[in-house]
Amino acid sequence: MPPVDGKLIGKVALVTGAGRGIGKAIATGYAAAGAAVCCVARTQSEIDHTVAEIRSNCGTTISAQADVTDYASVVQAFDAATRNLGGVDIVVLNAGGNYDDSRDIECGSPEQWADTVQVNLIGSYHTAHVAIPHLKTRGGGKIIAIGSGIGHRGRPGESAYASAKAGLSMLVRVLAQELWQHNISVNELIPGPVLTERVAQTLADRPDSVFKIDSEWIKTPKEVVPLALFLATQPDKGPTGQTFSLMRRDP
Questions:
Q1: Is 146 left (phi over 0), alpha (psi -120 to 50) or beta?
Q2: Global pTM?
Q3: Are 134 and 87 in contact (CB under 8 A)?
Q4: What is the rounded distance in angstroms from the CA atom of residue 138 to the CA atom of residue 119?
Q5: Beta partners for 141?
Q6: Burial level of 82, CB count in 10 A (0-12/13-18/19+)?
Q7: Are residues 194 and 227 in contact, defined by beta-carbon separation less than 8 angstroms?
Q8: Cα separations (Å) of 115 from 68, 69, 73, 145?
Q9: Is 152 helix (H, G, I), strand (E, B) or coil?
Q10: 234 phi and psi, to 5 degrees?
């Protein structure tokens, strides 16, 4: 099947956490819009499925196994994208997770807290750090960070994830200030509640979860794609350092 609208023809996107959920949806959505996509994740079998789906629809894609907490493996992923796809124009900082299973800070595990910050914040920093020279080589580009409303307002029992996403939100703003003159825009996309495996588990474990709020829009991963496409298709001197949210209330 040819690209749905061709908005991203000629562009190369690298998406972390592309093996499932939001990352997989964005990777397949970008490919459908004409981009060549480098699908990055820790689990090779998961990105193999994403790559197979894109190729079955005549899209151009490669896989690059990498753990964003391992800087060297992120370097290798970008090198693979440049070697096989010609460069990188769009980078989606999507890889993340919440490894802190405590209900409050006092009873939590310092190791799990640190692991959560490592993947969500340090992993995003690693990816952005490696991306910058690649984007400069192309004369500009886009960095899109998948944030969270929890990073703006907090939530009891979610201190690690909230702190990591709050740090990511500030990283977006500082990167935008540093990179605007290179035609690189950096923005935060807050999906709000999305019915991923993690959310399904939260619904089972915590009946009082935010995901039970009647007024909120609980999306499928594919329903995040239009906003991700919007950000990827803005002018090089378009919005930067901004937060775009799909939530029905303030993030």
A1: beta
A2: 0.92
A3: yes
A4: 27
A5: 184
A6: middle
A7: no
A8: 12, 9, 17, 19
A9: helix
A10: -70, 155
Q: How confident is the model at residue 93 (pLDDT cuts 50, 70, 90)?
A: very high
Write out the DSSP string of 18-77.
TTSHHHHHHHHHHHHTT-EEEEEES-HHHHHHHHHHHHHTT--EEEEE--TTSHHHHHHH
Residues 240, 247: Cα–Cα separation, whole Å: 20
pLDDT tens digit sequence for 119-162:
999 999 999 999 999 999 999 999 999 999 988 988 888 889 99
Q: How far apart are CA 188 and CA 216, in angstroms?
A: 20
- Marked catalytic residue, from 71, 99, 125, 161: 161
Closest CA to 15 of 94, 113, 129: 94
81: its two tokens: 């994208």
Is residue 161 annotated as a catalytic residue, yes or no?
yes
Cα torsion angle, 183, 184, 190, 196, sign? positive
| Among candidate residues 173, 215, 166, 216, the one with its CA nearest the CA of residue 195 | 216
